[in-house]
Amino acid sequence: MLKGLAEEPERTVGLRGESLGDLLKHLRKVEDIRLKGRFFSDGGEIRPDILVFINNVDASLLGGMGAALKDGDEVTFLPSVHGG
Asked: Coil, strand, or helix at residue 45?
């Protein structure tokens, strides 16, 4: 679902910042409007139905937006799936 909105489904990003929040700020600047609309609320926060993992660990367990990132970390964004 998110792959169809991204220019590239996987990419390497070089950042000057050091946190997940810095990565999201970068993505808000460079991504296509369709992906930004799916990812971010009108207030600029990541939507609650997007799960974020850093090296396969839920980012909320690592400090959320303040979670430290280092060279080689893998950040994964997954939409949660609801059904009924």
From this structure: coil
